[in-house]
Every structure is written in structure tokens, then in C-alpha cells.
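QUALITY CONTROL LOG
STEP: pairwise intake check
CHECKER ROLE: data steward
CRITERIA: each record must contain a sequence immediately followed by its C-alpha cells, with no blank fields

ENTRY 1 OF 2
RESULT FIELD BELOW
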Amino acid sequence: MLLRSLAIDNFKNIGRARLEFSPKVNGLLGHNGMGKSNLLDAIFTLSFTKSFCRVPDSMLIRTGEQFALVKASYERRGVDEDLTLGLAEGKRKSLKRKGKEYQKLSEHIGAFPLVMVSPADVDLVRESPDERRRWMDMVISQGDARYLDALIRYAHGLEQRNRLLKDSISDPAMFEAIEAMMEPAAIYITQARTRWVERLLPIFRKFYERISGEGETPGLTYVSQLARAESYSAMMADHAARDFALRHTSAGPHRDDIELTLNGMEMRRTGSQGQCKTFVIALRLAQYEFLAEATGMKPLLLLDDIFDKLDATRVERIVQLVGDPAFGQIFITDTNRSHLDEIMARSGGDYRLWEVSSGNFTPLHSSNEKD
């Protein structure tokens, strides 16, 4: 899959931008806060219908403006496609594909696969299980529409069950009916996550070792209450008294986690800054390989300021990795042109480079120009 061009009006600090992209490497050079990451976020939002930063849609509209518009032209499975995202104050978000608006935005997820690597990824290691569940769900949903449907059905049932608990309703028949609706979704979610972690682990280890170059063994372990229980109904019965006391549902896929380890030790407790960053970059590159296989398309790869807090050796190894033909179209931001120049030189193909300042994009030297 390729993103051929992008037209932006009033998205974050970008007032107006019209860009034509290289099919291989696209570099965005500039100081922090100039709009490099905002361009990547516009591309991300087209794939996932919401911002990578998880801010309300109203915050995506440029200050002082009433609307934002992002239009993109793609080549997907050899066919030209276009997407148009419209945001306006006080109105429903609009996403159109080939001019036809989606009625359910969930139908769009996975159609335009994408992987983004950013400084915020360290939250996967450092923060709560919410971050890791969100990551699992985002990745698996792109290659499995049934999984996304199960998530939606489970969330609906969970909301109903929590409402009963909050209102101190103890009618067994009502709980049984809701739990019967939640059970197949919970089972599918748990099974899909289990399969996914098993598939991801060897890929992840391969990338971690190629970046670290050291004798370190990273690990991923899916931690699930349901996977350890005799059955879904038995798990819910075991937690019933606790749920009534807490007034919310304390067991199920919404409480699961992935344990991240290095040499058998928890990353969030023992990992250095460089190790944590290496860990999450390897996770994202493994995510890329998984999605390429699951969707039959090379996802877009967005690399946002990924070299910060890494030593020169690890930077060099990442540069070698992303220049590999296994990766498709790349969008990369940095404040250091030398990193971008080296990646472009290694790609051996077409590339384009822009200087970014205050939401403006000025083309610099590209492979289409003569020296």
C-alpha cells in the first residue's frame, strides 16, 4: 500500500499543505513543535479515524478555525483509492472512501494498515495495563474484523453489567442474560490475544536482537484471568461478591495484560531508557511484520523522532533495519538531517525531504532532482 499525496487544511497547526510522496522514504526535518508529528498524526487519523494522541476531535481543528479537512490519495492492492476526513465544530466526524461516507467508522479499521513508532510508545512499558490492552486491540483489529466486532459486543455488555452493579441491582436473571451475551465475545477476544502473542514473540525477539546486538532475552507473556479459569461462568461466579462490593466488573478481558520482561525481569522496573526504547521499537517493527502477513499489504511505517535516547550503535542498527526492502513506504521525522540522509542513502530508491517550520512544508533535495 502507498500513500501518494496528502492535502491538509486546518489540521492542528497546519493551515494548508499539499504534498506528493515518495513510494519509499519521506523525511520531515525541523525543530520540535513545528508540525512534523502533526503531519504523521493526520496520516494516522485517516487509518484509525482518531488521533494518535487520543485527544478529542475538536482539538484537531486549528485554533481559530471552524473546520479541518484531510484528503489523501492511495494505491491499495494495485487500485487507486481516496479518503477524505472532515471535522467541524459541533458536527459529526465524516470519513469518506471513494466519495462514499462510512456509516460505521469501525468498518474502516484495518483497510489502510499503518504502524506508528513515537516517543509516547514508552508508555507501553511504563504505564498501566490499559496501554497494553489498547495496543493489542489496535493491532489485532487491523487484521481480524471478527475481533473488532467481539470487542464492541463485549464493551456493550460490560457497560450494561456495570450499570446494574452501580445501581445495586441483584437480579440473577438479568446478570445471567448479560453474561450470556458477553461470554462468546470474551472467549474469542482471549483466544485471539493468546494466538497473537504466540505469533508475535519470535518476530519481536528477532528485531530486539538485531537492534540491541547483546545477549539479552526479551519476553512477552499474555496474562488473562479467563485463560486460567475453568470457564467464563465459573470466573464470573468466583468474582461476583467482589463485583458487588466494588460496584464494577473485576474479571474479564478488560482486565488482561501483557507482561513485558528482559532476562526474566519486569521491564517497567528494571529497564534502562535505552533498553525500554529498544523494546518498544522492536515491538512496533514486529507489529509491522505481523500486519503485513495478516492483511496481505505492507503497512505505512511512521517513525516519529525515534532516535532520541539511543546510543550511536543502536541508531545505526535501526537505520539498517528500516532501509531493508521488507519495509514499504516510510515517513520519518527528525531534528538531525544526518539520520534522514543515511536512511535515504540506504534505501537505494526514491525519496523526498521537507523542512518543516510553523506548519509549513518546504521541499528540499529529493532523488528526482539532479545533483
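ENTRY 2 OF 2
RESULT FIELD BELOW
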Amino acid sequence: MKVLVTGIKGQLGHDVVNELTKRNHTPIGVDIEEMDITDMASVDRVIKEAAPDAVIHCAAWTAVDAAEDCIDKVRLVNATGTENIAKVCKELDIKMMYISTDYVFNGEGTNFWEPDDLDRQPLNVYGQTKYEGEIAIERLLTKYFIVRIAWVFGINGKNFIKTMLNLGKTHDKLTVVNDQIGSPTYTFDLARLLVDMIETDKYGRYHATNEGICSWYDFACEIFRQAAAMGHTEYDADHLTVTPVSADEYPSKAKRPSNSRMSKEKLTENGFERLPTWQDAVKRYLKEIEF
């Protein structure tokens, strides 16, 4: 199968291309230099020249706070760009997978969000524009996967784990938010699932994160615990103290969801293998990076 992947400079796009290659599919990786998703003519030309069997659309504007100051630019990337790709996929009658986010929900309460919950009430510009991308796909296509992910980390790019490891080297005390709950997602694991999905015609909306839930504080503590167990003593309890705090103590331009719990039962119902626990993912990830 020939699959066009957008956003290959990002954490997820990079791993999706590797996973496709591993399975003897033919990935065609593009980023903004090869295809400007905001330019319909560019999208039309590149996809038609590639003639893929499917598109996995990972490219997005993901700078959440910066998005608050430039809604038109963000909408152009996340909503219009997605719609442009969907239009060509419709014309060519090929599958499209759109990577979305837990931010399409209002982030309140303690219930697990269901993939087919239609009461999506985004809290910020990033979430709103990703939601508009979902709407465009649902309006234009029948052969689509909308896959919502959260708290992403991978080899290629910045993420929470790398940030924590860097801070832990230069500080002996850290404070981390403990009243936002969700599930970390390792792009290496996620890429495997996405390719599993694109090989089928089990279309629809899905949630895909590593198993288990935690707060950002829990996440940080586990990162440091595992790093210390690997012999990096600067992260052990004698050298580093991590204190839980409320999100109110970290005011940000964009409002963040306090509840990012997402139900993944639909994966099981459709015969897809769910991801390993987030703690297991952290362990494997730390072995892959230099710190």
C-alpha cells in the first residue's frame, strides 16, 4: 500500500513513516517544503502525483498558547489545510486518517470521553480549529479515520519527558500540575496502531493513547523514578524533590482541559490491539534517548 504522510518532521509523522516502511508499505513523507497544506493547488498537485492509496494527516499547528494570538493562521493550517486534503481524498476515493486531539472536548468532569460523543466544546483556539478539521472530514468523506491522541512524546522533537529531564538536571526542586488528568502517548506505539487501522476499512472516530491515566505530576515522578533506576542519580529522591501544585499556579494564555480521560473501548470492539501501559512506554522511550 502506498501511503502519503503529512508532517514528517514531527514526532508522530516520523514514526509513522518508519512503521510503514517496516511493514513493506510505501510511505511518501511530506512536510511544508514538499506540500503546503494551506494551498489547495499544492495539495491537489502533490497528492495526485503521488497517487497514494491512503493519506495519514499528522501535520498541524500545535503551539497551543501561541495559537490564541493568531486564530486565522491556526485555522488556515488545522481546519482549511485538513479540508484541502479531504477534498482531494474524496476526488480520488481514497482513505484519509486525521490525527486529532483530546482538546476538542471541554475538559470538564471525570468521565471518559467517548469517540462518538458529539458534544464537542473546545476550550481554546487550538482545540476549536482541530474540531473544525474533524467537521470538514465528516462532511466530505465516508472513508475516514479520526484518531484523537493526547500528551504525545516521541524521539523526534520536544515533549514533556525531555523537558522534565532537562529541568531535573538544573534544579533540585520542581513543581508539576496534579489536577489535569490524562494518558501519555508514545508515538512509536501509536504509529503501530495507526498502520494497523489504515490497513482496514473499519472507519470512524477513535481514541488512541497508552493505557492507564495519570496527572502531569504522576507522569513526572515516574520519569524521574525510572531515570534514577537507570543510574542517573541526579533524578533520585535525594537530589530532586517534585511537588504537586494546582494548574491555577501556572496560568497560561490558552485554557487547558482538566479531564483528558478518553475511552478506548472502540479499539477493542473493532479488533485493534491497544497500546501498552504508559509506564512501559516511558521505560522503553528512556532507553532510546540520550540524557
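INTAKE CHECK: passed for both entries
DESCRIPTIVE NOTE, ENTRY 2: The first helix runs from residue 11 to 22.
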